[in-house]
Every structure is written in structure tokens, then in C-alpha cells.
Design brief:
single chain, about 210 residues, two-stranded parallel ribbon, NAD(P)-bd_dom, Sugar epimerase YhfK, NAD(P)-bd_dom_sf
Length: about 210
Amino acid sequence: MKVLVVGANGQIGQHVVKQLATSSEHTVKAMVRKQEQADELNNQGIETVVANLEDSVDELAKAMKGSDAVIFTAGSGGSTGPDKTLLIDLDGAVKTIEAAEEVGLERYIIVSAHQSHHRENWNEKIKPYYVAKHYADRVLRASKLNYTIVRPGGLLNEPGTGKISAAENLERGSIPREDVATTVVSSLTNEKTYHQSFDLISGEIQIDDALQKL
């Protein structure tokens, strides 16, 4: 599949792009906000498109054309306020869902947040972020798309272990960003993840084996 990575310059997105670029099964198109980011990726031989999640649905649909799947890893980041969280993590995600439907793309994977589906378990310090993730996920589940919603725990920058725990509900835990990326890429064609949502933390089971148990 040709996979559009939304948020390709983010910390998880960079891992996803790298894995797809070396994949024998998929090709990648990286969506970034700035031309200098695109130039840097182009110099690495990676196809890019410059687009902004605050653009219109039609503009985002243009960025998606020619793709078979979308991986949404974008986020407004911890240094912005609730306004950007609303515009990027919620409305930006929803616009890409609408754009995917508009262009007839079917496969869509979103990186959400641990326990975003249970309000009582939201982190009070970043509650607007959880609100955004919760409702973006709900829109995705209600769409016509073949979705997978991945809800990782606390994100780490250490090297991946290749071993995870994945289930509808898991206790709080952490996971390297590299393992989140590997899980997302592995989910692309794994039918066990189709129309599924799950929490994700580090564990004792190899990623492909853990996904087969969903």
C-alpha cells in the first residue's frame, strides 16, 4: 500500500516514515507543514506533500490522492494551548477522516491516547487533549473507513523492544515511540486490527503475535 503519514515530522511519525521507507510491502508519502521539512525528506528519497491540518477538507483530500491508507500521528504538542489541541488533534483529525472518505480511501489508522475511551481515566492535567482524542476516535468509528485506533501509554524515546501488550483495556504503562510506530505499521494489513481499538504498552509478546490475539 501507499501510505500517507500525517504528522510525519513528529516523534512517532518519523519512526513510521523510516519503517515504511524501508518496507518491501509498502511505500510512503510524508505529509509535513513546512517546505524545509519536505526538502529534508526529499533529500532522503522520501516522497512528500506540504499541507496543514488547518487547511480545508478539499486541500487535505488533494494531499491524499494516490494513497491507499492514512496513518494519523499528528498532534499540536505539549507547548500549545487547548485552542490548538482543538484545531489539530480534534478538527484536524476529523478533516482527514472526511478527506479520506471523499477520495475513496479505505484504510485509516490513528494514534490516540491510553484510555481515551473512558472519561473517568483521563489525565486531569491534559484533559483537553483527551477530549480531542475521544471525539476524533468516535468520529472515526462512525465513519465508513476501515479503521484501527491505537491508544499508547506514556511515550518513551528509548529504543523499541519489539514486545508489547495490546488489549481493549490495560493498566497504565509506558512504551517506546519506536514500538508504537512498529505496531501501527504492522497493523496496516493485519486483519485482526481491522475495525479495532486497543490500549498499547510495553509487554512480553512480540508485536505481530500480540496483534493476532486481538
